[in-house]
């Protein structure tokens, strides 16, 4: 009999196989490094479906995860049930060759803020995958800054449209419209504005407090996925040596957006 970790690996491998086999030409790949704004964009698309097809049903985290599929988690061989938008497939993977003939959205956030949020995310788990200081975290091969830069560099020249978290904070409606236009998705201004308003950080945080998360067994009782939503919070975490490390990687990977 397979041990539990081995079972998990087999199930994961099956889901990725179903995902690769189930990807369709009209799917849109929604990619980001973890804690960069992927969930914000997924909430926007799910609220579009809710407003257009469900009579404005509340979109909480369980509804989001049931509706918006993720590569390696959901069975992409199953049919897409919605007509308002094409299927949006989430991934945190780099730009595999199979993604390059499909439309895609790359969501990025200042990698320094991303590291802060990702650090809290990992430490919010009941069984953290990383134990160490913040400086050690940003230098780790599995979680750190260089992994962010590799993800960014793999996608930046291949994505259909790039969304910056900071731009969405300033004017989400304008940048969601830019995204929709790039993806050739037609949508009324009223629907776009209503979906954007329901997807903003304060609204999502309120929904999380009221209805909770999907995978509560993975996190400590006091952990909130929608933690702060700040920009520039990295100033309280990065030492001078950490900033030098970030600058070196920015040059190495030709970061053009921060």
From TrEMBL:
Q: Is Phosphoprotein one of the keywords UniProt gives this record? A: no
Keyword Transferase listed? The answer is yes
Pfam families named among the record's database cross-references: Sulfotransfer_1
What InterPro entries does this protein map onto? P-loop_NTPase, Sulfotransferase_dom
Q: Name one GO molecular function term.
A: sulfotransferase activity
Keywords noted in UniProt: Transferase
Q: Where is the Sulfotransferase domain?
A: 25-250
What PANTHER family is this protein classified in?
Answer: SULFOTRANSFERASE SULT
The record's comment on protein family reads:
Belongs to the sulfotransferase 1 family.
Output this protein's name: Sulfotransferase
* Organism encoding this protein: Syntrophobacter fumaroxidans (strain DSM 10017 / MPOB)
Upper classification of the source organism reads:
Bacteria, Pseudomonadati, Thermodesulfobacteriota, Syntrophobacteria, Syntrophobacterales
């Amino acid at each position: 009999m397979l041990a539990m970790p081995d079972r998990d690996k087999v199930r994961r491998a099956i889901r990725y196989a179903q995902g690769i086999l189930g990807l369709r030409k009209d799917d849109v790949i929604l990619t980001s490094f973890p804690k960069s704004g992927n969930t914000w964009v997924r909430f926007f698309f799910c609220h579009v479906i809710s407003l257009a097809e469900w009579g404005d049903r509340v979109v909480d985290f369980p509804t989001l995860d049931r509706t918006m599929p993720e590569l390696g988690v959901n069975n992409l061989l199953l049919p897409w049930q919605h007509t308002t938008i094409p299927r949006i497939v989430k991934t945190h993977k780099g730009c595999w060759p199979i993604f390059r003939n499909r439309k895609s959205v790359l969501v990025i956030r200042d990698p320094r803020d991303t590291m802060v949020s990702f650090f809290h995310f990992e430490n919010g788990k009941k069984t953290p995958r990383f134990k160490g200081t913040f400086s050690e975290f940003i230098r780790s091969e599995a979680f750190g800054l260089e992994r962010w830069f590799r993800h960014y560099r793999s996608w930046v020249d291949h994505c259909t449209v790039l969304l910056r978290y900071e731009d969405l904070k300033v004017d989400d409606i304008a940048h969601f419209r830019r995204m929709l236009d790039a993806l050739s998705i037609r949508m009324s201004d009223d629907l776009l504005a209503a979906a954007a308003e329901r997807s903003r950080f304060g609204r999502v945080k309120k929904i999380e407090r009221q209805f909770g998360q999907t995978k509560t067994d993975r996190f400590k009782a006091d952990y909130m996925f929608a933690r702060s939503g700040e920009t520039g919070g990295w100033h309280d975490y990065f030492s001078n040596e950490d900033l030098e490390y970030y600058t070196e990687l920015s040059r190495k990977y030709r970061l053009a957006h921060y």
